[in-house]
Amino acid sequence: MNNLKTLQSVCRSYDDRQFPITPSGPTITTPLGKVRGYWKTSAKGEKFAAFEGIPYAKPPIGKRRFEAAEPVEQWKGIWDANFLVKCAQTDLIQTEMIQGEEDCLYLNIYVPRENPTRKDKLDVIVHIHGGAFMSGSGHYYSHPEYLMDEDVVFVSFNYRLGILGFLSTEDDVVPGNNGMKDQVLALKWVQKYITFFGGNPDSVTLTGVSSGACSVHLHYLSPMSDGLFHKGFSQSGTALNPFAIQDEPLMKAKLLGASLGCPTSSTHALVNCLKQRPFRHILTKVSLFHGYLFTPFSPFGPVIEKGRNAFLHKNPYYLLAKGYIQDLPWLTSNTAHEGLFPAAYIYKDLANVNEKWGEIAPFLLDYNYTLATLLWETTAKKIKKHYLGQNEEINEANFMKLVQMFSDRLFLVDAEYAVRLQGKVNKSPVYYYRFTYPGDHSTNKTVAHGEDAQYFFHNIFNRQPSCNELQMKELLVDMLINFVRTG
């Protein structure tokens, strides 16, 4: 990769965080070239090596936009792995805020050794970040200080998001799932090179939260991911959740193109035009695909592809029910109040939601594409009656009933289906837990979407955890490490 160093210097103009590199920093020699990181300290005061910003693919820019990512090439000299970057995205709530860059396919590796060798063969945890397939970054989970005391290698990475990662024209022009194929390429990188960081490519456990959890489960169903991992842990998400699969991708691609002045009669012409538009202009159009506020949260995400070499060729429910799934151990979880996402974001708008429930419910409950428009209002009324009661209104007094409604529709019902189906068709164990511990600093004693994830990563609390919370952290980390080692 002749221009890799140039690209690296460009990347650093938009780094979220950069650390000083010294000649004494940990240096690893791989077939791709040398990588130099820096030192960090674990929760128990042990030194560990951090390598942040290692490329695993060629930059998906220019002609490579909307194309499957290509493996990174060798570089000359020493690659300074001391920067963090996120993929181009809009803020999940404030969609007018655009962050990140297209050149973003980097991974981060953390090793609990001063001088890792190929003989160490440490278990590997690869984390897939959440964010509704629309936002987030691998480095949100770049503080594995707890895990570094457990003698495992931890890997996180970026993958393309939203329109840039999940546009599909439902044909061979842009089949879709480029964000998922980025994930596959990152897993292939781990298989090839993690041994040079002391990791064992024959013991890789995928973990993920929310859409990252859906991603973990989708890898069980994809032939592309066969042999790339050995266990999976999905927190607050499965492949059967309604936001795990994108609806009407071709219609969305055409709407996007029309909004940017691109021809839509030919998918070739449409995509060629979109490749010429600045990515920031493209991302300003995300709001076109939201019906109420910023819902549905995942207008762009994984699709069921047509043609050969598909990441996903059938509906996940069909694949799971028929047993077309890797027979590997799976651990999955939900929290007590999953539906606080999105309920918390509409709390100040409850009167309006109540008044316009028939119009708003299809977007909040993610059935705006799957149910005929003429059935929207009657369906919304039936759902409201079931959860709130006859003639009850959506208000503060009934707020937790609304939370339960969102929990069931967006997370819990499909999680139960997934666990029962996978347990039926696979011989490998399937584990499930419901996390109900609110923590000592919770003001309303609720346990929101993905909240158990904070106990695995040092930076998520943003405060000093209490003694009780540290005990819960120990319990959950022990559970994960036992699963990683024994399944």
From TrEMBL:
GO terms for molecular function: carboxylic ester hydrolase activity. SUPFAM superfamilies: alpha/beta-Hydrolases. Pfam families: COesterase. Residues 26-487 form the Carboxylesterase type B domain. Its EC number is 3.1.1.-. It comes from the Eukaryota. PROSITE patterns: CARBOXYLESTERASE_B_1 (PS00122), CARBOXYLESTERASE_B_2 (PS00941). It is an enzyme of class 3 (hydrolase). The keyword Glycoprotein applies. Keywords: Disulfide bond, Glycoprotein, Hydrolase, Serine esterase. Belongs to the type-B carboxylesterase/lipase family. This is Carboxylic ester hydrolase.
